[in-house]
Specification:
Elements (H helix, E strand, L loop, with lengths): L5 H30 L5 H25 L9 H31 L5 H15 L2
Helix pairs in contact: 1-2, 1-3, 2-3
């Protein structure tokens, strides 16, 4: 049998780092859900998935945008990137809750009435 080499160690370190980022994404979801509990199971599932995906994708975007990927080679840098991943997930929960509230308020309207209201709101806002 062959001895474990540097590739095995590198794979273990990479798995550890990915797990740490995933943990930060889940923590972001838990924090925001503790602040405003979901009303339905459907809302909970959609918000949880949105928050985790927003954490991971948004965190990766920020790391690439500011070119701070080299921070992963340092323990404190890993903690800082974990914080970035955590913070990137927080807005997703708010947006999902706002979307659910808005759609529930418009439940009795026809689609063309909703589209007209959105267009009118954009016109008033000057967009």
């Amino acid at each position: 049998m062959s001895e474990p080499g540097p590739l095995t160690a590198a794979g273990g370190i990479a798995l550890y780092k990915l797990g740490a980022f995933g943990l930060m994404a889940v923590l972001a979801a838990i924090v925001v859900m503790a602040m405003t509990l979901p009303r339905t199971v459907r809302e909970f599932i959609v918000a949880m998935i949105s928050t985790v995906v927003s954490s991971i994708a948004g965190g990766a975007f920020i790391v690439r945008w500011f070119e701070i990927a080299h921070w992963v080679h340092d323990d404190m840098g890993m903690i800082a990137i974990g914080g970035i991943v955590f913070v990137c997930g927080l807005p997703a929960w708010v947006l999902v809750r706002a979307g659910f509230a808005w759609s529930e308020a418009k439940k009795d309207r026809q689609l063309n009435e909703i589209i007209s209201a959105v267009i009118e709101a954009k016109r008033r806002a000057g967009l």
